[in-house]
Design goal:
Function: Exhibits a very high intrinsic GTPase hydrolysis rate. Involved in the addition of a carboxymethylaminomethyl (cmnm) group at the wobble position (U34) of certain tRNAs, forming tRNA-cmnm(5)s(2)U34.
Oligomer: single chain
CATH architecture of the largest domain: 3-Layer(aba) Sandwich
GO cellular component, one term: cytosol
GO molecular function, one term: GTPase activity
Strand content: 15-25%
Family: Belongs to the TRAFAC class TrmE-Era-EngA-EngB-Septin-like GTPase superfamily. TrmE GTPase family.
Bound molecules: the ligand Nc1nc2c(c(=O)[nH]1)N(C=O)[C@@H](CNc1ccc(C(=O)N[C@@H](CCC(=O)O)C(=O)O)cc1)CN2, guanosine-5'-triphosphate, magnesium ion
Keywords: Cytoplasm, GTP-binding, Hydrolase, Magnesium, Metal-binding, Nucleotide-binding, Potassium, tRNA processing
Strand order of the largest sheet: 3-4-5-6-2-1-7
Number of domains: 3
Number of strands: 13
């Protein structure tokens, strides 16, 4: 494919000792030569591929020296984008790298859109769509486990499985086609039904297995949305601080301290939590606090996990009871806090109200019980899981949605077989399954979707 030459700063802006301006496209080497001054007049177009060269960046208009650099020359197709790639390694800091980028743009490159380098790797066929998405997940991964899932996907684990299933479907479709073309053999229809049943069952099972990983995969990728709720002053913000091992939230002895919602990412034994500290829930007259309370009720509904904090040094209040009843159907861990004070709470009653939830007793003041809580969270979400080593996880909502739809259409195939529906009708659902799976790897995908997906990347990636 023919593309123009793009350029962008590929390192964090204004951070670090070295900053890289990356170019990709047919003109990358010429553009670099236009502003590069090597030792002894050396030109980058003459050097061997995948070599790095010391030199100066010079403004061709004014002959002014702009930067001292190292330039990497990588000729396609063995590059990240499969095009010619130039990387100009500048001194860190905002000014110098920006000046180099401006010169590159003035010399004929176009500023890359977010994710455009990776998009080219996809359009030029080096990686498929799910692998490109994995590159983005890799950048965002917040724990080792999430990283492993992204690396597995980047290496094409999901792609290979999807391709295998599509191949199976294609073979059945081909078989069916042949039979439609030669209807003169009587027993062909029956045989085809049997074959369809066998193959479609296999595909259904594989898709089901994949979907079973979706819950954990999504948690790994996006973080487990965890809402800390409870009455005012019970220790919710103290709990957030204990889990993140830092004083992120304000803690005071005044009930109603937390007014707005505080969000923090923490890694609890490999489980990434998106912790949400909320305003204490109670009936309130204060208008600001009331908005916070409304918002915390909303978070409660959207949370994957609820940490309900109670004050163990007080008897259960009607508000506590109401909260316990509200969360009984959710994934919930009840935390009876302030155990360092004389205990007044009836823990048996708490257990009765949330029979399925786990209960932990803590004294956040004395830093007691946090280990047990972390343990409870880890076993709740990764019980018996071996680091996801050989499991193909599906973690991306787009993939999960497509696999669910594919599963539905393969179930339609099976139902058709059951009912003895004519083969050429069943074939429509079979082909649909094939198309849906194709969307995962970007085989059958629309341009507008591609733009949307790649625009979520960072600039320069
Ligand atoms: N300086 C720098 N570091 C970087 C990147 C980069 O673009 N520049 N990457 C950017 O994300 C990542 C590395 N990813 C890459 C993936 C594939 C190829 C590549 O050239 N693949 C060729 C095979 C190369 C060979 O055989 O030598 C290919 O698949 O055809 C390069 C980088 C991380 N580190
Ligand atoms: N004795 C004792 N006090 C605690 C414990 N945990 C928290 N506290 C105290 O309880 C008070 C309230 O703690 P916070 O963490 O601010 O409570 P909160 O639930 O966030 O309160 P709001 O934001 O007002 O809803 C503070 O004075 C804490 O120091 C504990 O385990 N034991
Ligand atoms: Mg608080």
């Amino acid at each position: 494919m023919e593309f123009d030459t793009i350029a962008a700063i590929s390192t964090p802006i204004g951070e670090g000792a070295i900053a890289i301006v990356r170019l990709s496209g047919d003109e990358a080497i010429n553009i670099a030569d236009n502003i590069y001054q090597g030792i002894g007049g050396k030109c980058l177009k003459d050097v061997a591929s995948h070599t790095i060269h010391y030199g100066k960046i010079v403004d061709p208009k004014t002959s002014e020296i702009v930067e001292e650099v190292m330039v990497t020359v990588m000729k396609g197709p063995k590059t990240f984008t499969r095009e010619d790639v130039i990387e100009i390694n500048c001194h860190g800091g905002l000014v110098s790298v920006n000046r180099v980028l401006q010169l590159v743009l003035r010399s004929g490159a176009r500023l890359a859109e977010p994710g455009e380098f990776t998009k080219r790797a996809f359009l030029n066929g080096r990686i498929d769509l799910s692998q490109a998405e994995a590159v983005m997940d890799l950048i965002r991964a917040k724990t080792d486990k999430a990283m492993n899932v992204a690396i597995g996907q980047m290496e094409g684990r999901l792609s290979k499985l999807v391709q295998k299933l599509r191949q199976e479907i294609l073979e059945v479709v081909a078989h069916v086609e042949v039979n439609i073309d030669y209807p003169e053999y009587d027993d062909v229809e029956e045989m085809t039904h049997r074959l369809l049943n066998e193959k479609a069952s296999y595909i259904r099972n594989e898709l089901q297995k994949l979907l079973e990983t979706a819950h954990q995969g999504k948690i790994l990728r996006e973080g487990l949305s965890t809402a800390i709720i409870g009455r005012p002053n019970v220790g919710k913000s103290s709990l957030l601080n204990s889990l993140v091992h830092e004083n992120k939230a304000i803690v005071t002895d005044i009930p109603g301290t937390t007014r707005d919602v505080i969000e923090e990412y923490v890694n609890v034994r490999g489980v990434p939590l998106r912790l949400i500290d909320t305003a204490g829930i109670r009936e309130t007259e204060d208008i600001v606090e009331r908005i916070g309370v409304e918002r915390s009720k909303k978070y409660l509904k959207e949370a994957d996990l609820i940490l309900l904090v109670l004050n163990a040094s007080e008897p259960l209040t009607p508000e506590d009871e109401a909260l316990l009843e509200t969360v009984a159907g959710f994934d919930v861990i009840v935390i009876a806090n302030k155990m360092d004070l004389p205990q007044k709470i009836d823990l048996e009653r708490v257990r009765q109200l949330v029979p399925k939830g786990k209960m932990i007793t803590t004294s956040l003041l004395k830093d007691e019980g946090i280990d047990e809580l972390e343990e409870a969270i880890a076993t709740m979400y990764f019980e018996g899981q071996v680091e996801g080593a050989d499991l193909t996880y599906v973690s991306n909502s787009r993939h999960i949605a497509l696999i669910s739809q594919a599963l539905q259409s393969i179930e339609d195939v099976l139902e058709g077989v059951e009912l003895g529906t004519p083969i050429d009708i069943i074939q429509i659902d079979l082909t649909r399954t094939w198309e849906l799976l194709g969307e995962i790897i970007g085989d059958t995908v629309q341009e507008s979707l591609l733009d949307q997906l790649f625009s979520q990347f960072c600039l320069g990636k």
